[in-house]
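[SOLVED] Need 3D model of a two-part complex

Original post:
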Amino acid sequence: MENSKNIFNEKPKSSLAKALDIISTMVSKPSGFIGLTILVFHISLALTSPWFAPYDYKAINPSLMLNAPSSEFWFGTDSLGRDVFTRTILGGRTALTITFFGSIIALLWGGLLGIFCGLVGGRIDDIVMRIVDAFLSIPWILAMLLIVSLLGTTTEVLIPALGFFYGKGIVRVARAATHDVIAKDFIVSAKARGHSNLSIIWNEILPNVRDAILVEGAMRWSWMLLGFSSLSFLGFGVSPPTPDWGLMISNARGLMSFAWWAVIAPIVGLSSLIIGINLTADAFAKALGIDRSTKAPV
Amino acid sequence: MKTNIQEIKDLSIGFKSQKGKQISILRNITTNIRKGETVGIVGESGSGKSTLALAMMGYIKHGLFTTGGECLFKSQNLLSLNNKELEDIRGRKIAMIPQNAGQALTPNLKIGYQIEEALRLHTDYSKTEREQKISELLNQVRLPSPKIMALRYPHELSGGQQQRVAVAMALAGNPELLLLDEPTTGLDVTTQAHVLELLKDIAKDTGTSMVYVSHDLGAIAQVCDRVIVMYAGEIVLEGPVRKILKEPIHPYTYGLLNSIPKLSLAGLPDSMPGSQPQPGNIENGCSFYDRCNFSNEKCKTQVPELEYLSEMDTSVRCFNHSEFISKTSEQKTKNHSQKEITIDEILDLKDVSISYAKQGIIDQFLNKVTDTNPTVKDINININKGETIALVGESGSGKSTILKSIAGLLKTKDGHIKFNKEKLLSSDLKKRNSDDLRSIQLIFQNPDESLNPNHTVEQILSQPLKLYFGLTGSKLKSSIAELLEKVRLGAFYMSRYPRQLSGGEKQRIAVARAFAARPDIILCDEVTSALDVSVQAAVLDLLQKLKEELGTTYVFVSHDLAVVKAISDRVAVLYQGRLCEIGPSKDVYQFPSHPYTEVLIGAVLEPDPDIKPKLVAEDIVEEKPPEIGCSFQGRCPRIIGDKCKNETPPWQFGDNGNAIRCHIDIEKLKIQQS
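Solution:
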C-alpha cells in the first residue's frame, strides 16, 4: 500500500526476477538466512563430496577400530575401522536424492488430486477422500516395510513408494487450499462461461494454490528424509556398505557409551539437514505471504 | 454553548513504510464533540474515518502510531494513557458499537450472559440488580419479551436483533460517548430504518453523545446534528447537518452528494472523475485538486487551511468556497431516455421454482422431488430485448438465486427458461452449448473476488475471447485493447494485476470481461454495492452507455432501491422468493401498489434531513416463506384476514402496466396509501 505510486508503474516481472525477489526476502530474516545456508551447504556437499573425501568409505581396517577423533581421522573411526568423516559427508547423498525425487512425485499426484477433488466436490470427492483417510490411518512404516520386503529396496521401489505415502497429506492441503478459492466469484465466472474442468484447474486454481502446495511439499521433504532414515535405521533403506546416516546410526548405537563419535556425526548431519529444510520452508512461506501473522497492517 | 466532551487537537496518525518513509493516514485533525450531540463522520473508504473513530477511544491499530496532536476526553489525553487506565474509560465512559454485530457477539454464549458480563465489568451493580438491568436494557432497545431473549444464543436472532443486542451491551456501562462504526451497513433497508430510529431515541432519552461513522449519507441525514466530511485523511468540511447536506460549500461534498442516486430524482446521477489519492501519495497543494472542477493555480501549490465561517457555523477547507457557492445550482442528472419498452421477448421465465433442499437417498432413487415449499416459487417474468429489468428485495428474497439459475449455475426445480422465444435453456450448465453460454454473461458484486488475483488484466480479458472466438496473437491483443477502450481504460492497463487497480477500475475490467463475449444478456449481481458512491455513479453511467451502444439486455439485481430507480426500465419486487409486483419502474416508484413495495420504498433513507422514512411495517425477519397464502402475510400492514393466510393472491393489473399479487383491490390500495 505504501508505495502505491510505484505499484502503478510496476512492470510485470519475469519469473526469474520473481524468484530472486523471493530469495532476497527469505535471506533478509536471520532464520531464513540460516536455513537456506544450511540447505545450500548440504546440497553442495552432497554434489561434491566424492571428489574430496579423504578415505575410501568402504575400506575396512581392523587395526583402526573405534579410534577417537584425531588429526588423522577427524570424526574418529567406526567398529570396522572406517573413517567416520568420509562416511558422514557421503552419507546424505542417497537420502537427499531419493527424497528429493520422492517429494516431487508426492507434490504432483497429491497436489493435482487434491485440486481436482476440491473442484468437483460431491460424490467423487467423498469417495476419494475416504480412501485417502483410510490410507492415512495405516501406520506408514508398516506399509513401507511391506512394500520394501515384497519389492526390494532398490531406488526404483523407494522413490515411488515414499512419493505415494507422503503425497496423501498433500491431497488434504491442496484440497483445503482449493476450497479457499473455489467459492470465489472468479471460479464461478469461469464455470458460467463454460470452461472445462482442466482449464479451470490450470488457469484459475493452480496459480492461487501453488504457493501453499509448494510450501507443504518443502515440509514433506524434511519428513520424508526422517522417514527414509528410519527405514535405513531398521535396515530396509540402503544396503551396506553404502554410507547412509540412518544406517550409520543404527550400526553404531550399541557402542554409544564408549564410541560416541560414530553416532554423533551422522546425527548432526541428519538433524542439521532437517532443520535447514524446515527453516527454509518457513521462510519460503513467509516470503510468499502465506504466513499472515507477520503482515503489515492497513 | 454546550461543553465539549471530547477535544481532538491537531491529531496526526501514520505508519512507517518498508523504506522508512513516514506516511500519514490522518493529518492535523482538530474537532470537538459536544455533550449530548450526535456527530456523523462521513467519507469514502480510505478517508481515515474509522481510524479517527478508533483514536477517539484511545485505540490505534497495530503498526500505526501517533505522529502529533492529542485526543482529549474530559481533558485526559487518551493516547498517552496506559492499558489499565484505558480499561477504566472504555465501556464505562466511551463505548463502541461495531459494524457487524453478528461477528462481535460471542457465538456460544447466551445474550443475557454477554450483557451481564458487560455490566459486571463496567458497573458496580449487585447480582440481582444486574439481572433486572438486563431486562431493562433489552427493553430499551425494543427487543420483544426480554426474559426469553436473554436466554437465546446470537445465531437465534436476526441481523437487526443482533445489532440491538450490541447497542444494549454498549449502553450497559452507561457511557457518555458512544462510537458507532457503520452500525447499519449490513442490514436490510427496513431494518436499517428501524435501528436508526432506535438510536435516535436513545440519544434523546439518555443524552449520550454519539459519533456515527458511515459512508451512507442517507443514514447520517437521519440521526446526526453535525457532520464531519473527511477526504484523504483530512477534514474538508464540518458543520450542521442541514447546511452540509443542503448547501455543501466544499466541491468534494458537492460532488459526493450529486453522485448519490435519489428516489426524488429521475435518471442517473452525475459521476465524479478520478479517485481518492492513496496515503503517502498526496502531492503539494489541495488533496482534492485532481478531481476538482473549480480549482485554480493556487490550489495546486498551496494547502488550504480549515477556515471557520461563523455566519454558517461551518468549517471548510477550500480557497474558493465563496465563489463556489454561487456556481452550484440544482442537481443535474443525465436523463437516460427511458425508452418505451417494445415487446420483443428475449428471455422468458415461466413458473420457475428453485429449491435448495437436498433430496434424501430414497427420493433421489425414485427421482421424486419432496420439497413442497421451495425457496423460489412461481416466478413468471418476460424480459424484452434491450431493456434493463431490476429484481429488488431484501436479503433472502431470492433475487440472486433467480440470477444464478438463469446463468445455469443453479438447477431449477420446476418451470423453464426460454431464450429468444423458442430455445429452451437447460437448467444444467454442462448441457448448454457454447453459444447459449456466450449469450448470457455475469458481472459480480465484488471485483476483488471476481477477478483472479494472479492474472494480469490481459489474461483476464483473454479468457472469454479465447474460449468463444478462438482468438490468438495480435488479434487477441487488439481485441483486448478495444475492450479496454470501451470501458474507458487505456491499453496500458493490460500488464497490470487486479491489486494494482482501484475498486472502480477493477469493476470496469469485470464489465469488459462480460462484454468480451458479445452477450445478448448481462446479469448484474449487486454490481455497485462494493463500490464507493462517487465510483458507483461512474460505473452505472458506463453500463448505461454500453447498453445504448450495443443494445444489451440487463437483468439487474440490487438491494439499493435508489440505484435501481436510476438505471432500470422495469422492476420486479420479490419477497421470500415470490413475486409481489412487477411493472415499469417509473410507475412502481411513483405509485407503489403492493403493500410490500410500499414498505420497501418507504424505508429508503434519502440524504436529506427533511425527508423522513415512512416506517409502516415491523422489521421482523421471517426464516422461510409461508406454505400457503400470501408470502407477505407475516408483515403486511394491510392484511385483511384469513384470505391472506389461506389463499395465494391473484395477479391484478394496474393502469400503468404494473401487476401486483394481492387480495386487496388495486384501486382500493391506491386510496389507502394516499
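Edit: Residues 1-10, 292-298 of chain A have pLDDT under 50 and may be disordered.
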